[in-house]
Structures are given as C-alpha cells and as structure tokens.
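User: Okay, second chain of the day. Same drill as before: sequence in, structure tokens out.
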Amino acid sequence: MPSCIIIGAGMAGLTAAHELQKHGWDATVLDKGRGVGGRMATRRLLTSRADHGAQYFSVRTPDFRAHVQQLLAVGVVKEWNLQEADFEHPRYIGSEGMSTVPKYMAEGLSIKTGERVVRLEEKEGGVQVRTDTGHLFSADAVILTIPAPQAYTLLRDSAIELAATELSAFSTISYQPCLAVMVVLKQPTLIPAPGVLNFKEGNIAWIADNYQKGIANDPPTVTIHASPTFSRENLEGDLMELGQHLLGQLTEWIPAESIADYQVHRWRYSLADKRFPQAFVVCNTPYPMLMGGDGFGMGNVEGAFQSGLQMARQLAGTK
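Assistant: Same drill. Structure tokens below.
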C-alpha cells in the first residue's frame, strides 16, 4: 500500500487524507497543534463558545458543493443567513462552531497532534519525517499544507534546494495577521440582526455576535477581528491590553458593563492576501512532495479544500 505523510491538519490536509484513503493509500496527518482544523477554530468559553478564526465559508465549485451537501445532510454545517448584512451568496458555518467541520472530517483518519515537523530526509526511495518530539515517520510521499513561511523554514532546515517553482510560490504568497478578541457577555450585544458588523476602515475589521450566529447560547459571546494594519502593528504587543483597547471602541454595541471576560488570540497567518495562482506545487525532490494549502489557488476554506483534493488526486494518479 502506498503511503503519504501530510503535514498540517487543516482543511487542505484533512481533505487530502480522505482522498488518498479513498484511493487505497495509507495517509498519516501530523500537526503541531493540540487539535485539528487550523484556522477553522472554535474556542470554549465557560459553558459557551466563539469562532475566532474563519467565520464562515462559501461554495462555488462542484466538488466542494458535493462535500458541503454531505455535511449539511448529517447536520455538521448549516447556512448562516447574512442577506440583511448585504452578503449576496449563501454562507455556511459549523453547526456548533467552525471547528465542528474539521473534527467531523478527522474521524477515521490517522492523525498525530502535538508533532511539529522539523526535518525531512530521503530514506530508501521515500521520505523520513522527524518531529520536535523525536518521533520518526516514514512514507513514500509527503504533502505540505502548512502556511508558506513555515513550509519555507522546514525546507531550508531540511537542506532541500529549492527549484524555481517553489521559490516563485514562496515569493508570491503573503499573509495578513489578525488579532482576534473573544468576549464573554453578561447580556446580549446591541448589534442589529443578523449579528455582524463589517468595517472598511479603522482598527476593527469584523464583529460577529455568536449568539445571533447560533453557536453560543448561555452566556452570549462575541468575536472581534482587528484590522490587518492594526494587527500587524501590534502583533507582538500585550494581548490583554490590545483587547481592552479594541473593546473600548465598541461601547455602542458592547457596553463595558456587559463584559464578563475576554481572551485574545494572535493569528500570524490569518488570511493569504496574495496567493500562488495554481492549487499546488510539485516540488523538485528525490521523493514525491507536493505543497499547497489556502495560500494556493482560490484561497480561503474552499480553496484549501480544492488544494488538498487536487494534491491527493495528483499523487494517486487520478487527476
């Protein structure tokens, strides 16, 4: 049975693992985090929750539409009605938060969390992967789905000479950071239906009322995303002070006396604002290695799905 190690357990990695399994491959997914999903993330807050990474996803391509229809059928996702907020096309969310989707997709897969890959080495016609825990994993092929700067560091530390295509991808892809504030409230917000505010200017880019979104009941919660500029300028700052600063600008919708608690998360690679045009890159290595993710092709959740799907089909020879 051919084998593949997939680095990164976000949408691209999970999709690639499923597709490879379908074609008779042994796929192992490694991720440095404690759980799966990457930026499809939901934080538990007391007895409630808040989405603090990707807020929703849309559907444009046939393969992803079929996937979402399957998720709808089993109650893993639901539509978020945002027409009142001038969103023209349907938006979808995890039924109990965005992390519901990757958790469901992870079922039946071989996934090792808490394993940060630090080196790739050729071994007997395949690849040996070393992690920071000292564990070694071997396979015939490898798929990289981690953010491009992390992939670049891994390849450099592995003494892999980069070909023109890989260098082009690394020089093309860039990410916007994001500071995400998750707020636990004593009472509902004053944000009008359907519960979102989208700002084009200023320090804040997005606010979502998770109670109106349908993923947080008691207590109500709200998610705030700082603007890319504010996030970039303050990325290494004190997170709690930055959260307090942002909340101070939102008293019209979130009165200070309604705040019970808050947490702040630092996303270094929140959104690929400049992407490599193709869905993946075939690397110039002695063993098969493909590199993709949401920095390739369409981007966002659907683009990550497409990248993972197409990399798996390339490896399996079904593309």
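The two ends are 19 Å apart (CA to CA).

User: Thanks, on to the next one.
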